[in-house]
């Protein structure tokens, strides 16, 4: 296999450095909302990501308003959306997904109870997790997010196949997206209610 030229190696290192710096900036809001001595949530630490498929996780969050958190690994952090009704495997369903602050990669493994008085107080459980592949037309997933159309293929235990996230209004202040299952071999035709489907751990007990 041909080796990268010195200029290519330099460019790769620069891109990796920029991604690490961006992840630190992106986690400022996460840090600001939490008191880490009073919550079991992971610290907002950046980590090196080896050359592997990026991860996704869906967490049930029984907070003041029950919802699901949908997270995709992008540039060293977890891009995150609150999905009130949960994801659906039925292409007819257009699930509201509200963009929220980025979370550290370690949050992909977090389960537990956030005590009262803390931001997001309530019980967090992993509902589904796995890896995903970006399949959109933009040069990378970060560009796709900026352009408001993000297509990807999930390899989870419950969520499988092609999905799309669509920004409903390209105004920077608007946080509303739609999470939609694409019509493929994994698509469901029945009514799909994520709230009555067991969490990952419950399925394998």
Summarize the SSE layout with pairings.
Layout: H1 6-26, H2 28-32, E1 55-62, E2 67-74, E3 77-83, E4 94-104, E5 112-114, E6 122-134, H3 141-147, E7 149-156, E8 160-167, E9 176-181, H4 200-203
> What structural category characterises the helix and strand content?
alpha+beta
Q: Report how far apart the termini are.
A: 45 Å
Largest β sheet strand count, sense and barrel closure: 8 strands, antiparallel, barrel
**What is the helix tally?**
4
Helix content: 10-25%
Structure description:
InterPro entries: LigD_PE_domain. This is 3'-phosphoesterase. It holds the Pfam family LigD_N. It is a single chain. The chain has an eight-stranded antiparallel β-barrel. It has four helices and nine strands. With 205 residues, it is an alpha+beta fold. It has one domain.
Please sum up the structure shown.
With 205 residues, this protein is α+β, with helices and mostly antiparallel strands. It has four helices and nine strands, in the order ααββββββαβββα. It has an eight-stranded antiparallel beta barrel.
Write a concise keyword list for the protein shown above.
eight-stranded antiparallel β-barrel; LigD_PE_domain; alpha+beta; 35% strand; 18% helix; 205 residues; globular
């Amino acid at each position: 296999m041909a080796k990268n030229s010195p200029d290519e190696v330099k460019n790769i290192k620069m891109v990796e450095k920029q991604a690490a710096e961006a992840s630190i900036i992106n986690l400022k809001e996460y840090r600001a909302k939490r008191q880490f001595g009073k919550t079991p949530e992971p610290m907002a630490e950046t980590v090196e990501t080896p050359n592997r498929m990026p991860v996704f996780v869906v967490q049930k969050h029984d907070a003041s308003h029950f919802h699901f958190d949908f997270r995709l690994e992008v540039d060293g952090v977890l891009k995150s959306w609150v999905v009130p009704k949960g994801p659906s495997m039925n292409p007819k369903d257009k699930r509201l997904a509200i963009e929220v602050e980025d979370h550290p990669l370690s949050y992909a493994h977090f389960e537990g109870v956030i005590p009262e008085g803390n931001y997001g107080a309530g019980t967090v459980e992993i509902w589904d997790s796995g890896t995903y592949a970006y399949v959109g037309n933009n040069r990378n997933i970060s560009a796709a997010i900026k352009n408001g159309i993000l297509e990807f293929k999930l390899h989870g235990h419950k969520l499988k196949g092609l999905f799309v996230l669509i920004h409903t209004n390209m105004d920077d202040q608007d946080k509303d997206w739609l999470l939609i299952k694409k019509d493929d071999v994994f698509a469901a035709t029945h009514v799909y209610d994520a709230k009555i489907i067991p969490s990952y751990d419950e399925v394998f007990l």
